[in-house]
Amino acid sequence: MTSVPSKNIWIRRQQCPCGDWKCYVTYEGDAEETSVASELVKTESVQSEAMVAPYVGMVFKTDEEAFEYYGNFARKNGFSIRKERSRLSPQLGVYKRDFVCYRSGFAPMRKKPTGEHHRDRKSVRCGCDAKMYLSKEVIDGVSQWFVVQFSNVHNHELLEDDQVRLLPAYRKIHEADQERILLLSKAGFPIHRIVKVLELEKGIQGGQLPFLERDVRNFVQNRKKVVQENDALLNEKRENDTMELLEACKTTKEADQDFVYDFTVDENDKVENIAWSCGDSVNSYAMFSDVIYFNTSYRSITYDMLFGAWIGIDNNGRPVFFGCVLLQDETPRSFAWALQTFIRFMKGRCPQTILTDLDPGLRDAIRSELPNTKHVTPIWHILPKVSSWFPLQLGSQYAEFKSEFDALYRLESTEDFELRWNQMVSIFGLGSDKHIALLYSLRTSWVLSYVRGFFLARMATTAYSKSVDAFLKGIFSAQTCLRRFFEQVGVAANTQNQPHQEMQYMHMKTCLPIEEHSRQILTPFAFNVLQHELIVSMQYAASEMANGSYLVRHFRKVDGESLVIWIPEDEQIHCSCKEFESSGILCRHALRVFIDKNYFQLPEKYFLSRWRRDSSLMFYDDHSIHDNDDEWFQEFQSLTETLFTESSLTKERSDYVRRELTKELTRLLNEVRDMPESDGAPMDFTLSPTG
């Protein structure tokens, strides 16, 4: 009887060692499985020490223990056993067990069908009387099995060890061999070749496997039948659950007009791909659409669908959820539809930069649908693949290769990269390696010298990667159906996109006027980054050149020198490191020049709106945004922003506001709850960006 998994299991997509995109999961058995496997090995291994023959009066805790013991004895003595009869009683249940030699009794006469060819198989049964009979007794409430009859007299020849292992009772295909057989069969290997491969892998001579070629053939045929039955049940479950998901989207749309979704159907009118986003996410995108991350790390085993999530970063450095998609496959066509749909959800607004995994199909879709968007693959997507592709191939040279690869990634000049890349490929003999070819073909999306200067909003950092992983893991717990998964995504997205006002006290560390001024404008996240750059800038020296530009270098010359161009007429500053163009926060080199120029405040242009305190997700009334005459809301918003700005200037202020505001809000909430719940003019509060 076949069954369908009751839970929806999500796995991370990985790239197989062969280089093709597949989804596979490796696992280890639990303690119980490991114990069972160990016992099987013990049972089927030929032990050198002597084994006591069963005898009348011998005691076993269970009948299975007795069967295992008799089976081990039989194997050592050249025969196998089978279970014959058992007897039951209402009080004891099964209380009699008969175990006999595999050649006990005689084969029953079979009537041959007339008119049909029937293969006449000779039976091995010859009336052998070797046996062990058991009886169960309960003594002081404990069940025990006693041997009541035993005979080791056979009327046939007993087999040698190299023959007895081929008896059906001992021809077992262990789980590890089963997985290998299925993998080779799926790859198109014929049965005799599968057997040969297993013999070579185990380093044994032909015919020494613990099973025969026909056992492998029977196993493959039976497994294919089970898979076909399971596939039929799974397909029915997928269709039903996908329709439930679509119905959930329709219901959500009826209740919330800002909710958006779309789907495609195949030639059989079955749902193929489906994408959705909520109104809060669309509003968030309007504020933080400059950079997005399209994460495609997870795939559902049960539904065989790829999950893609569009995620950004808010002004406090937290991931913000924009929308998601379920795709039947990973072709450029499916990815193109997903990107088209997402941009339509977001009212035609394309991002400046999109971050993705190292997927050629996704790259092609981005080139087609987002031609003006820079495609970037963060280094934390590259390094795990390098670690899986090259160690086995390079062996002891891998450490040297990895060191050179890391250095190439950080080179500032594309010309230097091209030269040293070719040298590296030649030195390590990787000219024909397909992984090296793939990395090189995608170099403009991951090599630092090609990516530098494109806006990333600090999303290519390891810290951002970890925060996204934490968010997604909250979604991908085992779910019983797609509808439940849809609900979980909604809950997680709503929680992630909730407005957050940082009450973090921001300490002054340099006492520079620039630091004090920046603290009043930037969010704690952005301020901490700028503050770090300010502190480090103290270790740099700026040398003015004849043309008014500056060479800025570390006092120990750790990271070379940077060229800073200063245009005083427009108060413009440009650094060769291009950190401001990449993160939107000034670098240590530019700050060094501003300090030397005796600037007490940075020009306004260097405080990007996306990093300002007033560029936050706030509660607002949808109608009042469209009607600017709502003075109450304007006043409330202004007071709130001023309160948080003023309270963050000192720790004393911050602690006071935190303490008193909690009291006042609690008091107001209790009073409001005592008022009538409706006066005919309810207000609809939702989440959206302001400013």
From TrEMBL:
Q: Origin, by domain of life?
A: Eukaryota
Q: Where in the cell is it found?
A: Nucleus
Query: Pfam families, alphabetically?
Result: FAR1 (PF03101), HTH_FAR1 (PF26175), MULE (PF10551), SWIM (PF04434)
Q: GO molecular function: any one?
A: zinc ion binding
Q: Which GO terms describe its biological process?
A: regulation of DNA-templated transcription
Coiled-coil annotated spans: none
UniProt keywords, alphabetically: Metal-binding, Nucleus, Zinc, Zinc-finger
Segment forming the signal sequence: none
Boundaries of each SWIM-type domain copy? 563-598
Can you supply one Gene Ontology CC term for this chain's record?
A: nucleus
Protein function: Putative transcription activator involved in regulating light control of development.
PANTHER family with a match to the protein in the record: PROTEIN FAR1-RELATED SEQUENCE (PTHR31669:SF185), PROTEIN FAR1-RELATED SEQUENCE 10-RELATED (PTHR31669)
In the record, the note on similarity to other proteins reads: Belongs to the FHY3/FAR1 family.
**What protein name does the entry list?**
Protein FAR1-RELATED SEQUENCE
Q: What is the lineage of its organism?
A: Eukaryota, Viridiplantae, Streptophyta, Embryophyta, Tracheophyta
